[in-house]
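Why this split exists: single-chain examples teach little about how molecules sit against one another. For that reason, every record in the complexes split bundles all components of an assembly together and asks for one structure covering all of them. Below is a record exactly as it appears in the raw files.
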Amino acid sequence: MNDVRRAVLLARARRRCGEQGSPREYRCGDDVRAVDWHASARTGTLQVRERELDLRLSWSAIADRSPSMNVGRRRTLVTAAREAAAFWRACAGADDSWVELSPPVQPFDLRASLESALERLPMHSALLVAGDFYELAAVPCTVLRRLARRADCTGLIAHDPWRDGIALTGFVHVVDLESGKRRSFYVAAQHRARYAKAIRAREAGIRQSLYEAGWRTAFFDESDGAMAVLHAFRLA
Amino acid sequence: MTFNHEWIAILAAAVFPAAFLAQRAAISFQRQAAFAYSHLPFLTAALRAPAWPVVALDAAAACALSLLVLAAAQPRYLVTVPAGATLAICLDTSGSMNLRDVMPTRAQAALAALRSFAAAVPSGTRIGVVAFAGTARIIAPPSTDRSKVFAALAAVPPPNGQTAIGDGLAAASATLPASGPRGIVLVTDGTNNRGADPGEVANRLRAAHIRLDIIGIGPGALSELALRAYAREAGGSFVRIRSADQFPAEMKRVAFEAATLRRARDCSPAFAVAGLLLITAAWFALAGAPRL
C-alpha cells in the first residue's frame, strides 16, 4: 500500500518537473527511481532530485455499482470493484485525507460521478475509478483530461466475464441487467467468434481513450480487485 | 377443402397472427430464466446474429397452434373418384339429325362426340347405347367393354322419323340397374312430338336418383327451356351445341360429371400431427438454450 502511495507521488512529481527541488548527490538508501539521469550525466556522479514525498494527498474512489456490474462466474464485478476501492482507501497515508464524493446517484451515472469528482477533488488528489466503462462514450474527453490534470487518475477496466468465450448456442433469451429489456437470439459459432473479437476491441478502445486522456489503466476481473490496483502501478 | 365446423376454421385464421404477435411480445414478460448480460446493445452489435431464426421459430409455434385449432375444425378435402357408374347414351336419330348446320351433319357430329365421350369416361364405367326416333331401340346394354360401345355407336340407324324423347329416356332408364350411380346422356336436336311425355319420365328419373345430362344440338328449333328443366329436375346439366368444335370440351365435362363422384376425406389427423411435430421441433430448439 505504501508503494502505491509512493508511486502516486512519484508520478505526480514527474508531471510537475518544473517545481522540483535541486538535485543532490545520491546517498545509500535513496530510491533509484529518484535518480536524475540528466544531472548525473552533467556532473559525472549519481544525482537524485528531491521528490515531494512528504506531500499530503487527497484520496477518492468511484466504484461502478450499476446493474451491468452484477455479472461474473463466481462473484460479481461489483464486489471486485468495491474491493479495489477499499484497497485504494487503505493506501492513503496517515496524514492524507479521504474525499467522499457526492452521495450515490441512483442509478449510477459515470459522467455525473466524474464531473462531481472534478468539482470536489482538490489538487494533489489520487482518484481511482473501477468499472466496466460502458458509459464512457457519454463522458467528454475534456472531463477526463481535466481530471488527469487535477489528480492522479487510475482507471480499472472490468474484464468481460466471457471474454474468453461466451457459452451461448442455439436459441437463447438474454436480459439486459441495466434496462431489464429482453431479446432472443440464435447464436452459432461464427457469432461467438464475433463476440470475442468485439470484446477485445472494446476493452482496447477504453484503455486507449483513458490513456490518451492521461490516465493510468489496468484491467480487473471478479477474482481480485486489490491486485488490479497493484498491476496498474506495475507493483505486481 | 371444407370444414365440419367452419367457425373453428375462421378462428384458426385469427389464431395465427394473434399467437405470432403474442409470442413476439411475450419475450418481454417471460419469467423463464434468461441469460443475464451487462449491456444488451453491445451484445446485439457484437454478435450480429440475424433476427430471422427467432422470427421463424415464433412463426412455427404460431403455425403449430393454428394447425391444432384447424384440426379441431375437422377439415375435409374433396377427391374425385370414379363412381363405377352405369351410363346410358340416348341418341336422337330423328330425320332432322341429317341437317348440316353442325358439320358434317348433326348425326355424324353427335356420333363422333359420343365416341370421344366413351373414351373419356373412367374405366369401370358401364356404357349402354339407346337410339330413338319415332320409337326407342336398345342398341347395346351397358358394358365396360369399350369396343362393344364403339360397335354399338357404329350400329346406330341413320336418322329418319319423328322425335320420341320420352320413349328414348324410358328405354334408356330400363337398361340401367336398380341401384348404384346411374346416368343418362341424352343427345337431341328437337322437341318431343311423339310418345311419352319427357317431363314425366324426367320426374321418374329424379325419383330413382338417375342423373340426366342433355346435349342439345344445332341452332334450330329446340325446346331448350323444357330440356333444361328436365335436366335440372334429374340433377344433371343442359348444354346447347351450335358447332362441332364445342363438342370435345362439353363431352369431356359431361363424362367427368356423370361418371365420377366427389368424396370428402377427413384430414384432421394430418393437421394435428403437423401441429404436434412443429410444437415438438420448437420445444427441442428452445430446450437446449444454455444458461450460465
